[in-house]
Design a protein that fits this description.
The complex is a heterodimer of chains A (122) and B (112). Chain A is an all-beta fold and 122 residues long. Helices cover 0% and strands 48% of the residues of chain A. Chain A has strands spanning 3-7, 10-12, 18-25, 34-39, 45-51, 58-60, 68-73, 78-83, 92-98, 111-112, 116-120. In chain A, strands 2, 4, 5, 6, 9, 10 and 11 form a seven-stranded mixed sheet that branches. In chain A, strands 1-3-8-7 form a four-stranded antiparallel sheet, with no helix packed on it. Chain A is globular and about 40 Å long. Chain A starts with a strand and ends with a strand. Helix content of chain B is 0%, strand content 48%. Chain B is globular, with a radius of gyration of 13 Å. Chain B starts with a strand and ends with a strand. Classes of the chains: A mainly beta (122), B mainly beta (112). Chain A binds chain B through residues 35, 37, 44-47, 50, 59, 61, 95, 99, 104-115, and chain B through 31, 33, 35, 37, 39, 41, 48-51, 54-55, 60, 92, 94, 96-97, 99-106.
């Protein structure tokens, strides 16, 4: 069974940093691209970032480009999202997701984790 | 970016009756490989999103057959043949044709 478990939840001041993790199990992690999607309180879904199966290629939404870094450790079956220069508008539940491809292009999001909450407040 | 527009934003439905949600994209979702990467997701209250349908009409594993998807190009529809209590939640369409996937605003399905 595919399992994705996010962690790293926290309260951060504006301008601060936080690292999220997503531990994967039940599948060959190094075979699949991985994605981060977020949901602000009471709002819809926003696509944040993605990384190819081998980590060579990444994508960032304009809203986080230059502030967030996605990475993965295939030896640990873990996906990361390093978030910096955090703003109030980054406050959200962050979900990791997996599709069916090694590329993050045209990769429907088949499996989702339960999410981890990031609160940005002074 | 491709803008995804859903209608209605709220849909009160009687149990056992059908429901339908529309999704329109600001440009064609037909990819150069010939596929159309339009998905539907369900988010029950307090739960993460769950994939229902991918590539317009393919039901994901474990999804009941009362859910069906259709459409082409820029216009797509999710239909629930007979709404059950467990179907309450918010439904999103999502495009994965162009990098920087985008979602519709969400349609809240509630029971009358």
């Amino acid at each position: 069974e595919v399992q994705l478990v996010e962690s790293g939840e926290g309260l951060v001041q504006p301008g601060g940093s936080l690292r999220l993790s997503c531990a994967a199990s039940g599948f060959s992690f190094s075979t699949y691209a991985m994605h981060w999607v977020r949901q602000a309180p009471g709002k819809g879904l926003e696509y944040v970032s993605a990384i190819s199966s081998n980590g060579d290629s990444t994508y960032y939404a304009d809203s986080v480009k230059g502030r967030f870094t996605i990475s993965r450790d295939n030896s640990k079956n873990t996906l990361y999202l390093q978030m910096g220069s955090l703003r109030a508008e980054d406050m959200a539940v962050y979900y990791c997701a997996r599709g069916y491809s090694g590329s993050y292009y045209t990769d429907p999001l088949f499996h989702w984790g339960k999410g981890t909450t990031v609160t940005v407040s002074s | 970016d491709i803008v995804m527009t859903q209608t209605p934003l709220s849909s009160p439905v009687t149990l056992g009756q059908p429901a339908s949600i529309s999704c329109r994209s600001s440009q064609s979702l037909v990819h150069s490989d010939g596929n159309t990467y339009l998905s539907w997701l369900q988010q029950r209250p307090g739960q993460p999103p769950r994939l229902l349908i991918y590539k317009i009409s393919n039901r994901f594993s474990g999804v009941p057959d009362r859910f069906s998807g259709s459409g082409a190009g820029t216009d797509f529809t999710l239909k629930i043949s007979r709404v059950e209590a467990e179907d309450v939640g918010v439904y999103y369409c999502m495009q994965a044709t162009q990098s920087g996937y985008t979602f519709g605003q969400g349609t809240k399905l509630e029971i009358k």
